[in-house]
Amino acid sequence: METLQKIVVPILAVLLFLWAWEALVWVNDWPNYKMASPSDLPPAFWKFRWLFLEMGWQTLWRTVVGLGLAVLFGTLVGMIMGFSRIARDGLYPLLVGFNAIPKATLVPVISLIFIGQHDFNTVLMAFLISFFPIAVSVGIGLSTLEPEYRDILRSLGASRLTIFRKIALPKTLPEFFGALKVSVTLAFIGTNLVEIVAPHGRGLGALFKSGETNGDYPLMFAVLIALAALGILLYYAVLVLERIFAGWAERPQS
Amino acid sequence: MANLIEIKGVTHAYRTKSGPLPVLDNLNIAVPEGEFAAVVGPSGCGKSTLTRLVAGLMKPDQGEVWLHGERVTSPRKTVGMAFQNPVLLEWRTILENVILPLEIVAPRMPQAEREARALHLLEMVGLKGFDSKRPSELSGGMRQRASLCRAIVHKPDVLIMDEPFGALDNFTREDLWQTMRDLRAAEPFTCVLITHDLRESVFLGDQVFVLSGRPARTQMVLNVDLPADRTLDILYQPKAQDMLHTLRDQIRIAQGRDGEMH
Ligand SMILES: Nc1ncnc2c1ncn2[C@@H]1O[C@H](COP(=O)(O)OP(=O)(O)OP(=O)(O)O)[C@@H](O)[C@H]1O
Ligand SMILES: [Mg+2]
Fold it and tell me: Does the keyword Transport apply (chain B) (predicted)?
């Protein structure tokens, strides 16, 4: 019963939303260039199905690679900040300052520095925009580790690395995944930003732009839907990883 | 019998923003092998600091800590620790939690042997059948029992406990006193127990060290000459009552020396 409800209710909600959208366009008699209706989308998808697959793949791999780099780099920076007070005091203002820069302004800067390196630029942006939450969460998680947790192993003469591996790392996993959920969305935004803004781009963002240039409005809306689907896919992939690696942090429901 | 733990003239001060804070002042404590030393003293007098020094987690400014005839300058593998907070790792089962010290101290020990040892201890403290549960599924008293198992799983020769039963209700606490007594009978270890419960110190201790207020020194040592197989009833007998009175008075004196009155 409960699982049925979990599946049926969301599907009904989506159908209701599509119906309302269709009705809105139909009642107002809006032309396609104002707003495409859901019934225009399947033909658009079908017409460009190979492009969608190819561009979707481009967007997906760049986001995932960018996010992967963000995880590596963010964890490293977080570790440094978590273990050394001096590093924390020194790095924190830099990180906050960097994070405060609206990333859209970086697109032209990056494209100028690395002209023509479209793949590289996109991955770089996905990385730049998404490492901050990871670095901060890992740093805070490590620096707020109760000393007693450390002491259980330290009193046995365990090395710092062992303490990190056996205690600090697993203990920060819930915070890490909390940050990763934010980061995956950010990385996705970063990828699309470059794909849309950069000339001669590839990926779903570029497909969106070509729809715009050619006045193919159903295509533009179809891309939006595809982006939403891809975003959901990425988000749920993180949720699944969280279940696997930090499932213990979920309190048993009372 | 030789003294297994020897604290000789230990003086220590924490460096704080408002200058040095003297915590221990020429402290002397000696615990013979296999004996149980209970340490009581006013809140904030430096008892936890003492445990950290004995465990080798910190070095004293002055004085020496000796374990087993060796000067302690860094952590040793033959020490077990338990705190007021059971600090079990939530991502491990109870069994995996108990095994943890063996992973550090005896990396080459076969897993089956580790598990057998841990299961044996869990059974002794009354946690049989809970080995595959998560810490969050256990009550506070049960978690503390698991924490005790973890503290002694690697057969340490010194067990250091910092108010391990402090957060438990009275009945659970008394249960755990008896568990401690039985554990000691089954596998002897030398123990330093920090506590603020005088009855606990008399029930479990062979000696009770009363520390003065901060900076702490050894104000008094009480020999608890009660039989090893004590029962809770013994606490209500005149001999124990006398000791409790003495300790109570000593604590009052200790508190008087310090600003922190309770
Ligand atoms: N790392 C530290 N840095 C500075 N001061 C500290 C530090 N740890 C403890 N202190 C101070 O040293 C004094 C003794 O602390 P300690 O924890 O050893 O007392 P305690 O006897 O265990 O107290 P309680 O009975 O409340 O547990 C306290 O006044 C405390 O504020
Ligand atoms: Mg303390």
Answer: yes
Q: Which fold has domain A49-248?
A: MetI-like fold (1.10.3720)
Mean pLDDT of A85-100: 88
Asked if residue B251 has its Cβ within 6 Å of ligand 1, the reply is: no
Name the residue facing B104 among A151, A162, A171 (closest C-beta).
A162
Task: Compute the average pLDDT of residues A142-159.
Answer: 88
Is B137 in CB contact (< 8 Å) with chain A? yes
Phi and psi for B222 in degrees, rounded to 5? -110, 125
- Nearest CB among A151, A157, A166 relative to B74 is that of A157
The mean pLDDT value for B98-110 works out to 92
Owner of token pair 């897993």 = B111
Cα of B49 to ligand 1 centre, how many Å?
6
The pLDDT value recorded for residue B257 is 47
Question: Considering the domain B1-76+158-262, what is its CATH architecture?
Answer: 3-Layer(aba) Sandwich (3.40)
Mean pLDDT in residue range B81-85: 90
Taking CB atoms and an 8 Å limit, are A148 and B103 in contact across chains? no
Q: Do A170 and B154 touch (CB under 8 A)?
A: no
Please state the ipTM of this predicted complex: 0.81
**Selection from B164, B134, B98 nearest residue A251 by Cα:** B134
Question: Ligand 1, atom 17: nearest CA belongs to which residue?
Answer: B48
CB of B23 sitting under 6 A from ligand 1: yes
Locate the ligand 1 atom nearest the alpha carbon of residue B44 and give its number: 23
Name the pTM for this structure.
0.81
B141 or A35: which leads in pLDDT: B141
Confidence of residue A6 (pLDDT cuts 50, 70, 90): confident
A149, A249, A252 ranked by CB distance to B87: nearest? A149
CA distances from A95 to A67, A136, B46, B93 (A): 17, 9, 39, 38
Interface contact A248, partner B, CB < 8 A: yes
State how far the Cα of B50 lies from the Cα of A237, in Å rounded to an integer.
Answer: 49
Q: Contact, A201 vs A209, CB < 8 A? A: yes
Structure tokens at A27: 């009642």
Q: Is B158 strand, coil or helix?
A: strand
- Decide if B114 contacts B99 (C-beta within 8 A): yes
- Any CB–CB contact under 8 A between A239 and chain B? no
B48 in Cβ contact with B194 (< 8 Å): yes
Mean pLDDT of A218-236: 91
Q: Percent of chain A scored above 90 by pLDDT? A: 37
The amino acid at residue A181 is K
Task: Please indicate whether residue B16, judged by its CB atom, sits closer than 6 Å to ligand 1.
Answer: yes
